[in-house]
TrEMBL record, chain A:
<dbReference type="InterPro" id="IPR000674">
    <property type="entry name" value="Ald_Oxase/Xan_DH_a/b"/>
</dbReference>
<feature type="region of interest" description="Disordered">
    <location>
        <begin position="479"/>
        <end position="549"/>
    </location>
</feature>
<dbReference type="InterPro" id="IPR008274">
    <property type="entry name" value="AldOxase/xan_DH_MoCoBD1"/>
</dbReference>
<feature type="domain" description="Aldehyde oxidase/xanthine dehydrogenase a/b hammerhead">
    <location>
        <begin position="34"/>
        <end position="145"/>
    </location>
</feature>
<feature type="compositionally biased region" description="Low complexity">
    <location>
        <begin position="480"/>
        <end position="491"/>
    </location>
</feature>
<keyword id="KW-0500">Molybdenum</keyword>
<dbReference type="Pfam" id="PF01315">
    <property type="entry name" value="Ald_Xan_dh_C"/>
</dbReference>
<dbReference type="Pfam" id="PF02738">
    <property type="entry name" value="MoCoBD_1"/>
</dbReference>
<dbReference type="InterPro" id="IPR037165">
    <property type="entry name" value="AldOxase/xan_DH_Mopterin-bd_sf"/>
</dbReference>
UniProtKB/TrEMBL annotation, chain B:
<dbReference type="Pfam" id="PF20256">
    <property type="entry name" value="MoCoBD_2"/>
</dbReference>
<dbReference type="InterPro" id="IPR052516">
    <property type="entry name" value="N-heterocyclic_Hydroxylase"/>
</dbReference>
<feature type="domain" description="Aldehyde oxidase/xanthine dehydrogenase second molybdopterin binding">
    <location>
        <begin position="4"/>
        <end position="244"/>
    </location>
</feature>
<protein>
    <submittedName>
        <fullName>Molybdopterin-binding domain of aldehyde dehydrogenase</fullName>
    </submittedName>
</protein>
<dbReference type="GO" id="GO:0016491">
    <property type="term" value="F:oxidoreductase activity"/>
</dbReference>
<dbReference type="InterPro" id="IPR046867">
    <property type="entry name" value="AldOxase/xan_DH_MoCoBD2"/>
</dbReference>
<dbReference type="InterPro" id="IPR037165">
    <property type="entry name" value="AldOxase/xan_DH_Mopterin-bd_sf"/>
</dbReference>
Amino acid sequence: MIEFRKDLFADERDDTLNEVGKPTRRQDILGHVTGRSPYFDDHLFDGLLHMRAVRSPHHHARIRRIDTAEAERMPGVVRVLTGKDVPQNLNTLLSLLDFGIDDEPLLSTDKVAYRGEPVACVIAATELQARDAVAKVRVDYEELPAVFDVEEALKPGAPTVNPVYPKNAFVYHGRYDHQKLRFGDVDAALAQADHVVEGRYQMSPIEQAPMETCGAIAAPEQNDRYVCYTSTQALFFSLGTAAKMLKMGSNRLHFIGGTVGGGFGGKVDSLHEPMAILGASLTGRPCKFAWDREEEMQVGAPRGAERWYLTDGVMNDGRIVARKFTGYFDSGAYTRLSSYAIIKGVGHLPGPYTIPNVHADVYCVFTNRTPATAMRGFGITGVDFAIEAHMDKVAEVVGMNPIDLRILNAYRDGDMKAHRRLAKNTALIECCQVAAQKAGWSIAPSSQAAASMKDGGGARAALPAHTVTDQKGLVEGFDSGSYAKKAGASAPPSPSSAQPNRPTPTPTPGQAAPAPAQARPAPQTAASSPDQPRNKPNRFSSLSGFRRR
Amino acid sequence: MTIHKGRGFACINYPIGMNLGGDPSQALVHSNPDGKFTVALSAIDLGQGMKSVTRQIAAETLGVPVEDVYVDTADSDTGPHDMGSFASRGTHRVGNAVIRAAEEARGVMLEAAAEELEVDAGDLVTDGRGNIHVRGAPSRSITTMAASQAAQFKQGRTIAGRGIFLIPLSEVDPETGEMTPVSCFAHAGLVVDLTVDDETGEVEVLQINSAYEVGRALNPRLVEQQLIGGAWMGLSHALWETTEPYYPNRDHGPVDFVNYLMPGPGEVTPHNIAVLERPAEDAPFGGKGPGEMCANPVLPAVANALYNAVGVRFDELPITPEKILRGLRANGGARPQAVRQG
């Protein structure tokens, strides 16, 4: 049952539109319900080759030797790829946004840092032949000690998972081993609070579980280009990544996607496209690289685990005066998108509440497990679980109806948030009121009378008179790119955060101002010069009858 | 064996668009000579309705019926750059780009119509049914088809438009975390009613009552589908799903849907939804993305309802029957909390 509460916020809305607001049937629904919508895997090609990855059986191991000789002699095998075949065999997805250091190979050559990490890729005439040949690739491993727990991984002496970050923590702004949030003086407020409520929350990894597993089919097109049908959620992200890793001009790549069998975040940082295009370019034939369900679940990047510690200071009347977080995102063996999710999460703290003193230290930790990535609610779902489970404990401690506690502390229009911007267009209070009403859960008259447009701002718009800062977790020797970083000492400190004794960030050479966030591959090299003979025009048309989607 | 009833609440807000901005989207709109429009995007339709919602936005902005617009997505040769379908950015970023492209195309269409009607383009309005007429004088009108034909074959105008939407990248202060993360937030509040069997640890979710604030429901049917599906996913996250059941131990990882469990059709919970619409000023017609945020409040609301039912705090997800039984044992059995009305 769904109802639209048009009575609420009616004066902020023009409800006289022609098309917007109508329950128009989806443009693509007929194709979907009749099974005719073409997905990437519906594009069939003459002579299609199949790729299967050779994967590490170990959580952490040095690679001594990879012997592909026997596999290459197996029936149907056309070629076996290893790391040396990849033009730029180190990447981090967010390098397209100038954020982070390249840390992950497409095919690993020196060591593996999670079970399932690819070290070679067999290309064969059938999928079965590719699978059989995978079993014949001999890899000599020297097992290394592994670390699986985020807090263990940060302890001195823990095995180094990712050599780019030897201490197992992503480096923020080239400066700290975690992302900080500092607003007011949390410790002083906790000391003055009537009650201190502590909690620890843990979320385990979760699979995005799309019906369609990740995959791509690439084929040589005429005129020295490659077409790539893909299940990606981010066409130009994937195109940019492929162009970078293959050192190919982006306009030599023709990516086609757009109809995807579920994504939920698991198809943002896919590496199927560069692998399939690499196969197509080295064999001159169409190649398909796609996961089976087991790979999707255990090798495909899940929603990562998160661990959160919360400490609240609350007064007897229910006002929360201080909230402190320590958070650990389990990034797995490589960065992927976890570093970004943490900044998003920190910008979200302390949740939708106006709390005058907030402090957070959030770590992006490397462990010997499948790298984590995006999923619905990325960077927020885990900490929202922690915050809202914690609110229930706070309500119990002060003996309040948990909905009344939320409304009392809810952010309102004009309130200052912990990331030092004013709140606007808020509607938390109304959501609490309507949900309570629908469930028949009575709330206090003061809660019933509250509104997002009332009683915000004023003193609640003020920045803290004093913010405590510190240099805990200072890291030397990093220049981790310019994304989302203040331009060092030349940037005027904001009046809010200026402290007499605040250390001035040292500008590091080579740190540029934030670059435009255009997906732009790094160095592009023309693979063939105009006076070389053209490749034989090799046109593979789609047999499915759909040239395109 | 006893079945214990519990009720729990949670509320959330959710940032719309890629955190810190810096994530542009582009759109191209053009008309055939008969006044039928194509919107070219490289945005992805994951099933969430990207094509449909941008189609409605384009039709609204152009002032033509929705049947006169089709959206073509995700061909890198024809669709202009877009960062991708993630971070609740599709409706907000792509929708804004489509508005700008459609406004440009509409401007040319009105100029063509003005030339045919021998009036000022500024005096023209569209009726949304395929006609352009002088404001206040519906009889002085021309169809969008005739205007487009005149533009193409008589006047030599291209009825086309380009649009980009970019929120410039915000910096982050390494010392304080000061930043401009996003420009608008969606909201939700939600009550879960459930029962717990203290012998088997099984949980049955009886009903959900919720309020979701989405800025504007650009397509109410698509919003409803997202909210119902998202709540289902939230329940699944709360009670069922993980790839590492004994995290941080790596053993016993499921490799198929026989072992990776999610609620089936029989476990879909009755869900009473109220949709609130407080338009965001920089969002397309005020619409915020509902797709991601709708799962989030379910997880803590379930944990809070379980505490209400049996008096055990379950702070580790997913809250499987095994964890419930272990929690009950450590607690010395169920200790139901105060009954909440409803």
